[in-house]
Structure formats: C-alpha cells, structure tokens
Design brief:
Elements lengths: L3 H10 L2 H10 L4 E2 H8 L3 H13 L3 E6 L2 E6 L1 H21 L8
Antiparallel strand pairs: 1-3, 2-3
Amino acid sequence: MLTSADADVIRVLGDPLRLKIVTLLARETLCTTHLVEETGARQTNLSNHMKVLREAGIVETEPCGRFTYYKLKPEVLAGLSEQFAELAASARTAAENKRACP
C-alpha cells in the first residue's frame, strides 16, 4: 500500500524540472554545473529543486573538491515502482469484482 512518504515522492516528481533532473541522474552522476547546462535552469532555481529532491530522499550528494555531485538513489524509485506494480495487480483482479448498488 502506498504510504504518505510515497505520496511525497510522487508529489516531488510531479514537477517537470525535477522529473527532468531525475531522468538525467538516472543516466549518470552530475554536478550542479552539468545540471544547469542540461536543464537551462538558473543555478539558484536548480539548487532549490535539488534541495527538495534531497529532502525527499530521491538523490544524494557527493562532494568532489569545490563541486557537488548528485546521484540518484534507485532504491527509492524501485520501491515506488513495486508499490505501483502491486496496485496494478490488485486492479487486474478487482476488475471482476463489482459491488452491487443498494
């Protein structure tokens, strides 16, 4: 069953820029400069979105000299995927169950 934590992750991923960032990080670990270049977002805007993604537990940071690299935490998305797979399986079996109207 989806939890309130799952709902928070879904809400966070509902933003188009954050979804784009997650998609980019699914391919490789990137620093802030790379993410600014790839998304076209201003650095301050991007930093705010990265804070939201970190607080939701979707990404983690890796300091490297004067740069901060970001990497995706795949287990968070995998857990969410499992929850949706369970919902889909339940919906398939429930399709034949119809509650009679009173």
